[in-house]
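Workshop exercise sheet. Pairs work together: one partner reads the sequence aloud, the other fills in the structure field after running the prediction. Swap roles for the next sheet.
Pair: D.N. / O.F.
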Amino acid sequence: RVEAILFNRPTIADLPTSIYLDTAVKGQIAARDFTYTYPGAKTPALKHLNFTIEAGETIAIVGPIGSGKSTLANALPRLLEIPEHSLFIDGYDIHQLSLADLRGAIAYVPQESFLFSTSIENNVRYGDPLASKNTVETAAKLGQIHMEILNFPQAYDTIVGERGITLSGGQRQRTALARALLLNAPILILDDALSSVDNQTATAILQNLSQSGQKRTVIFITHQLSAAATADRILVMDKGEIVQTGTHQELIAQQGLYQWLCNQNQLEDLLH
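Structure field:
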C-alpha cells in the first residue's frame, strides 16, 4: 500500500510551462468569472465569482452552510482542479504558477487540523523544523495560545498525544494557527479554523494579525460574525455566489442576508 501511494501520480501537478517566481508574492488575490462544479455534480458549487482582494487586506467570508466558502478556500492553493483563468495571485493565473511557489505563498488552516504525538513546540515548528524557540513563542503569542502553553505541565515540551487528544478543541485550533503563522506566508487562509474558540479570543487573534507588522493577506471564513465584523471587508456567500460585499456597517445598512445572519448569531448567543 505504501508503494502504491508513493508511485501514484497526483492529478494536480506542474505544467511544462509553469512559472517559477523570482520575486516575493505580495498577496493580491482576484477571481474572474470563477465557476466550479464538483466531478459528478449537476449544480455548480461556485457560480461566476468576481472579486479582488488587495495585498495586506483582511477579508471575512461568511454565509450559510453549503454556500461554497470552503470550496473557495480549497481552490486557492489548487487542492481542487479548477478551470484556467479563474483565480489569480499578484496577476498570475494560479494554473501557471509552480505548485511549490503557489503553496509556499499560502498558509492554510482547515477546521480540523492534524497534530502529531510529539511536543507542542514541535507541532508549532512543523513547517520549519529549524525554527528557534523565540520564533515558536512569537507565533504562539499571535495565535493566543502562549500563556496556556506556559501553564501546561512541561510548558512547550508537553506531549500533546495523537491528534492532539490532550488539548481542547480551541487549543488544537490555536496551535494549528500558530504553526501556520510561524511560516510568515504572505497569504493566510483560515477555513472556519477558530470555530472552537470563543468570539472574544477569535476577535483578539484577528486584531493581532492586523497589528503584527507582517502585512499578510488574511481570508477568514467563519460563522463568528462578531469577529468577522473587525475585517477590512466582508464577502457574503449564498448558494455559490457572492451576494453582498462591504464593511460590517455597510452590510447592516443593506438589510440583506448579512443582517439576517447577524440576527441569527445574536439569537444563538442568547440561547447559549
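Discussion prompt: The chain has a mean pLDDT of 83. What would you look at next?
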